[in-house]
Design goal:
The protein has 4 helices and 3 strands, in the order E-H-H-E-E-H-H. The chain has a 3-stranded antiparallel sheet with strand order 1-3-2.
Length: 89
């Protein structure tokens, strides 16, 4: 099983180390491997985090005018672990 460091997660999600550590300690990545100094997130925990925090966006109103958006939007692709690692298309 593969494990990810805080630094790797920072690069994947473009967030600060403090933000990632806060999410880890709050349990958003599930159980982690702790060596006494740092936490490492399992691939399963990372996938569950991605699944819980991604999905299609639903924008019904234009933010600046408040008018209903007339354009038809394509459904968004669900983000996967491969997309974050740069292997996706």
């Amino acid at each position: 099983m593969q494990y990810y460091t805080v630094e790797q997660l920072c690069k994947m999600f473009n967030r600060s180390a403090d933000t990632i550590r806060r999410k880890i300690t709050s349990g958003e990545f599930g159980e982690t491997l702790n060596d006494g100094r740092s936490h490492m997130v399992s691939e399963k925990g990372l996938q569950s985090y991605i699944k819980a925090h991604t999905g299609p966006a639903h924008y019904e109103r234009h933010y600046s005018t408040g008018a209903k958006c007339k354009a038809k939007h394509q459904p968004l692709k669900r983000l996967t672990l491969e997309d974050l690692q740069g292997n996706g298309a």
